[in-house]
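Protocol step 6 of 9: fold each sequence in the batch and record its structure tokens directly after the sequence line. For illustration, a two-sequence batch is reproduced in full.

Sequence one:
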Amino acid sequence: MRPFSPAETARLLGIHESYLRQVVTEENGVAPAVKNGRRSYSVEDIHELRKRLDQGTRGNRRYVPHRGPGEHLQVITVMNFKGGSGKTTTAAHLAQHLALHGYRVLAIDLDPQASLSALFGHQPETHVGPNETLYGAIRYDDERRPIAEIVRGTYIPGLHIIPGNLELMEFEHDTPKALLQRRTGDTLFFARIGQAIGQAQNLYDVVVIDCPPQLGYLTLSALTAATAVLITIHPQMLDVMSMSQFLQMTGDLLDEVSRHGASTSYDWMKYLITRFEPSDGPQNQMVAFLRSIFGEHVLIHPMLKSTAISDAGLTNQTIFEVERQQFTRSTYDRAVEAVTNVNTEIEAQIKKAWGRAV
């Protein structure tokens, strides 16, 4: 993880840069690194500063915004039926944004292609072994493991991950057999992810699930475990038509599983416009069309198409990780602003679900 400038650090902590200098001076603890005359802070420094700042606020969660009594775990499924909509990029940036702002976050890679895992440095072919994906915690046989045994730390304090690989497809193959051979007391497929997450719910504020681009048992189980749904949509006609079919099939299947006891009520459900080009006339028309249909369910801020974000992905990095010097200043700042606007809007939905002032 790259170091952060004093201005970036102050924004992440929600304080003025002058107050940051004062806090560092008074505490004589966390000192910025100095290179070529420029000060910077590591993610560990920011995490420590956040804890120290919160000690003087009498636990009002201003700087350490962990959920309190009566605030339920937020489980956000990021999904789309069509590949290339920016689903994994959205999930990665959302998880990192929340962790950098002091939340305890668990990212779950539910996609057998495991792109989210690769973004966090876990290559599915070499770094993720048997029974080390979420499949290990939701499988039907005696080899099922507690979720705590498969959670991994990351290079960002407060952010953990459960990686994925092709092993996740085993759940799609096992479920039909389990339905035929079901024993009394067995948990049905749609409740297994929620049951696994429940084992660790007191350790996190938000769970971000990157769903596979298909409507299988994994996706249905994730939707049943979710408290919120974020659907990514590229504003082109073929993508919108595909999303329409996906939503209709999803609705029919959720109605069916709800008749068997599944929960399908959500705190919020939002559509995120991704890979948006403001200068593209047809895209603007499509966005206006989507807003006319879905209204306030479409997030106000779109995720802009950016060479900075796409180039960062080529080296398995997010915009929070790449150095600003790799791009022109305007390109980098525009990408960071777009990502921050989207994730701040989603963070507001989380706070609203908890009953906090936004």
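Sequence two, same batch, same settings:
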Amino acid sequence: MENKINCGKYPLIYPLPIALIGAKVDGKANVAPIGNCGIVSVEPAVVYISISKQSYTAKGIINEGEFSINFAPCTMIKEVDRAGLVSGRDVDKSTFFHYFYNEGNIAPMIEECAVNILCKVISTTEIYNQYMFVADIDKTLVSEKYCTNGYADTKKINPIIYAMDNQYWSLGERLGTGFDIGKELL
């Protein structure tokens, strides 16, 4: 057997998508970049995010019951990182991006981002120092320039990903089609 190194209780899950979570806090748009988000179910469309209880953005999600998940292309890495360097308590993040809203005018979405997902909270769970919000997806929007044949194109989007070594990464090359490439081993 190959020698394995014990890294302890370390959540070495790859990759972590970097999402900008948008919420209205005290009447203004606010965003927080996080890596703790994922899919709970495809049908029905349900996602989760986990965010620090101390986060200013969490306050807005609790008060409004809605948030947005925004995925930026790698070309926006500096802007995304800046959003995580300061708190909305101290700096007005409503000036960091251009925001637009759904009909309800609650959860700000970021125009510059390739993908915008509007979410409505269905449950909130406190886990240690985090809030985990589980939410129904109200709608998903993809900027046309990031689509091919009317569908989101991962290569064009080139989302920012994060690794637990505190490094940002971009995606590599496509390896194959899911539930197909392994057929030759059957």
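Proceed to step 7 once all outputs are recorded. Observation for sequence two: The mean pLDDT is 95.
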